[in-house]
Design brief:
Blueprint: E1 6-9, H1 13-24, E2 29-32, H2 36-44, E3 53-55, H3 59-65, E4 71-74, H4 80-89, E5 98-101, H5 107-116, E6 123-130, H6 132-138, E7 141-146, H7 148-161, E8 164-165, E9 168-169, E10 171-175, H8 179-208, H9 213-223, H10 231-241, H11 264-274, H12 280-293, H13 295-305, H14 317-349, H15 356-362, H16 373-384, H17 393-416, H18 421-433, H19 440-451, H20 468-478
Parallel strand pairs: 1-2, 1-4, 2-3, 4-5, 5-6, 7-10
Antiparallel strand pairs: 6-7, 8-9
Bound molecules: 6-phosphogluconic acid.
6-phosphogluconic acid binds next to helix 8 and helix 11.
Length: 479
């Protein structure tokens, strides 16, 4: 029997789905799982695809089953388990074999693993995969970081199994070492932003306008036919339409308002801070998940403050819904501008040369944030090659119009007492970004006052200090 093209370690949902996807595209895949019975079950249920599987009882067998240089995908729980499997593989593998971590790894771990394998003759790929279980089985978006030669070894398999946008594969080489996992982390940060802004708009419809879940579902359905067309808006419509069989009510009204998080959104926010890039809408989305988790405290505070959420008084329901659509779109532009700005800065910092246009293009299908909007971003980067998306002509035209909706919606949310942290931060980012004169002159003066940090003077070169002690004395004598 001919050798397998690639190996997969880990037959959990993601690993088995990816292996089935590989087998379906006509490639032989060698698989190994710590629990043998689970692996046998996957193959037993694979139907005709089982013929493309080689089940291996040991890692030695796995090595022997794959065509060298051997690419082996690890799809197990992120963190220590990955290090353990790498330690087991390291003495077995040889001559440019490629260990591929396809989990949601922190890119700093990927960089460490890459370095640790540098002199071993083996290579490492940190591969971000988006699209959940369905994506893994039928076509995910794939972001690869590592040596370009390793990418070329796996390119055929990965582009075959990836999602396709108008026939173009949604899999690409992002750059060396941690680039792939970094891009996936920012994808998830943006995903948090998108989901939070959608939920804020939902909240305004539910509490501000008193709309029922089914009515809100219809609004999302309409929006999904326009420029907001996206997977997340589509599933929002579906989710809002489901009736719980037991309670005979919309399921969404029964689900507790506490959102979990596995950590990738938080990493995106942390790295934005590390790189000194403003990603306030994404950070607000992470913070909103934290606030959501404080359910007991929120219930107590609600009882203690007794400030009711006000209904939003609108002259025209339809006009307000149009404003919400505009606000969501404008908020999206700001949040994506932030995510791409983080990637552009990281690219320079880590010398990755991240292909921003390609990243937008491979997110058009397969991944969780797939949308029509990413088509616009792809075109914008094709023209500009980089820079803040708020300065791309297509988005400038949109923001010039839609900032008014975002502003109106944020103002209404504030006056009604409904928090809209991601939308508010998106607006503040836009307003801050387009101010040629801000207020940090006062902060510089304060810093110089208490810490002699110095300041620049308009129109003059050099660092200056203020005559603060005199001012202080004068202020004291006036009081
Ligand atoms: C994807 C998703 C996927 C997963 C996240 C969710 O791109 O397929 O982002 O990676 O759903 O882990 O993360 P949270 O648990 O942090 O929401």
């Amino acid at each position: 029997m001919s050798q397998a093209e690639i190996g997969v370690i880990g037959m959990g949902v993601m690993g088995s789905n990816l292996a089935l996807n590989i087998a379906e595209k006509g490639f032989k895949v060698a698989v190994w799982n710590r629990n043998d019975a689970v692996m046998r079950d996957v193959i037993r249920n694979a139907g005709p695809l089982a013929a493309n599987f080689t089940a291996c009882n040991t890692l030695e067998e796995l090595k022997a089953a794959i065509r060298p240089p051997r690419p082996i995908i690890i799809l197990i729980k992120a963190g220590d388990p990955v290090d353990q499997v790498i330690a087991q593989l390291r003495p077995l593998l040889e001559g440019h074999d490629i260990i591929i971590d396809a989990g949601n790894a922190n890119f700093r771990d990927t960089m460490r693993r890459f370095d640790a394998l540098k002199d071993s003759g083996l290579t490492f790929i940190g591969m971000g995969i988006s699209g959940g279980e369905e994506g893994a089985r039928h076509g995910p978006s794939i972001m690869v970081g590592g040596k370009e030669s390793s990418w070329h070894r796996v390119e055929k398999v990965l582009t075959s199994i990836s999602a396709k946008y108008k026939g173009q594969p949604c899999a690409a080489y992002m750059g060396p070492n941690g680039a792939g996992h970094f891009v996936k982390t920012i994808h998830n940060g943006i995903e948090y932003g998108d989901m939070q802004m959608i939920s804020e708009v939902y909240g305004l419809m539910r509490d501000g306008l008193g709309m029922k879940a089914a009515e809100i579902a219809q609004v999302f359905g309409t929006w999904n036919k326009g420029r907001l067309n996206s997977y997340l808006v589509e599933i929002t419509q579906t989710v809002l339409s489901v009736i719980d069989a037991k309670a005979k009510k919309p399921l969404v009204d029964i689900i507790v308002d506490k959102a979990g998080q596995k950590g990738t959104g938080k990493w995106a926010a942390i790295e934005a801070q590390n790189l000194a890039v403003n990603a306030s809408a994404i950070e607000a989305a992470v913070d909103a998940r934290i606030m959501s988790s404080m359910k007991d405290e929120r219930v107590k505070a609600d009882k203690a403050y007794k400030i009711p959420k006000k209904k939003i008084a609108v002259k025209s329901h339809a006009a307000f819904l149009r404003q919400l659509e505009g606000a969501l779109y404008a908020g999206k532009i700001a949040a994506y501008a932030q995510g791409f700005a983080v990637m552009e800065t990281a690219s320079k910092e880590f010398e990755w040369n991240l292909p921003l246009g390609t990243i937008a293009s491979i997110w058009r299908e397969g991944c969780i944030i797939r949308s029509q909007f990413l088509g616009e971003i792809t075109k914008a980067f094709k023209k500009s090659g980089g820079g803040n998306l708020l300065m791309a002509p297509v988005f400038m035209t949109m923001m010039k119009k839609d900032h008014a909706s975002l502003r109106a919606v944020v103002a209404l949310s504030a006056s009604s007492g409904a928090p809209a942290p991601a939308l508010s931060n998106a607006l503040s980012y836009f307003d801050g970004y387009r101010q040629s004169r801000g207020t940090a002159n006062l902060i510089q003066a304060q810093r110089d006052f208490f810490g002699a940090h110095g300041f620049e003077r308009s129109g003059e070169q050099g660092a200056f200090h203020g005559p603060w002690s005199k001012a202080k004395l004068k202020a004291q004598s006036l009081s």
